[in-house]
Amino acid sequence: MKAIDHKGQFKQRVRHWADKLDVKIVWLGVRPMRNKWASCSTAGHLNFNDELPALKPELWDYVIVHELLHFFVPNHGKLWKSLMRAHLGEYETYESELKRVVHDIWLQQ
Questions:
Q1: Please, are residues 66 and 84 in contact by the beta-carbon 8 Å criterion?
Q2: CA 57/CA 78 separation, integer angstroms
Q3: Are 65 and 88 in contact (CB under 8 A)?
Q4: What is the pLDDT of residues 28-84, one digit of tens each?
Q5: How many CB atoms lie within 10 A of CB 40?
Q6: Tally of helices (H runs) and strands (E runs) in the chain
Q7: Phi/psi at 44 (5° precision)
Q8: What is the pLDDT of residue 106?
Q9: Residue 105: how many CB atoms within 10 A of its CB?
Q10: What is the pTM for the complete model shown?
Q11: Residue 92 CB neighbours (<10 A)
Q12: Domains of the chain with bracketed CATH
């Protein structure tokens, strides 16, 4: 039986959102990251924490959209928040859930 390719599905989801938000991705990586879920550069480089693909797709969307919006809005101000809400609705729910996941991971270490 073939194993589910969560990393491949995750990258596909990133490309889906990048197309939807009209962001040109130059580099897309999924790698170990100690202190954050994702990072991006103005050069079009995106990196995501390799623990993300194991989480549920709604949390993928939160992190993906969060990061992609930084190509247009560098901070987490009113514009960024309104764009998050426009694309994901009540995004704070996912934000809280990710904080719980981080707490659980921290407890296991």
A1: yes
A2: 25
A3: yes
A4: 999 999 888 999 988 889 999 999 999 999 999 999 999 999 999 999 999 999 999
A5: 19
A6: 4, 3
A7: 95, 15
A8: 61
A9: 10
A10: 0.90
A11: 13
A12: 6-108 (3.30.2010.10)
